[in-house]
Design goal:
single chain, 99 residues, alpha+beta, GIY-YIG endonuclease, three-stranded antiparallel β-sheet
């Protein structure tokens, strides 16, 4: 089964939220943490995975990403708080796969 993900990355103080879509969440989180791509998330130090949703169809994931990006900050915070009220890094412990 091909999986796709919509995910939120936040900075240390949770003041910036980046929303993305990927078919390889582990690899993409690693790229955020190492600032592999020099874009928005690298500029604003969004290196903490605080929320994600899994899909079996990339088109559904892309549609959901667009919907989430169009929403306001409060809706994004509410989603994060619904599963991760402490805004912990959900990827803690994942990076040992890359060592």
């Amino acid at each position: 089964m091909n999986r796709s993900y919509v995910y939120f990355m936040a900075n240390k103080n949770n003041t910036v939220i980046y929303i993305g879509v990927t078919s390889d969440l582990l690899k993409r989180v690693y790229q955020h943490k190492t600032k592999f791509h020099k874009g928005f998330s690298a500029k604003y130090n969004c290196d903490k995975l605080v929320y994600f949703e899994e899909f079996t169809d990339i088109n559904l994931a892309i549609s959901r990403e667009k919907q989430l990006k169009a929403g306001n900050r409060k809706r994004k915070e509410d989603l994060i708080n619904s599963i991760n009220p402490e805004w912990n890094d959900l990827s803690d412990g994942w990076l040992f796969y890359f060592n």
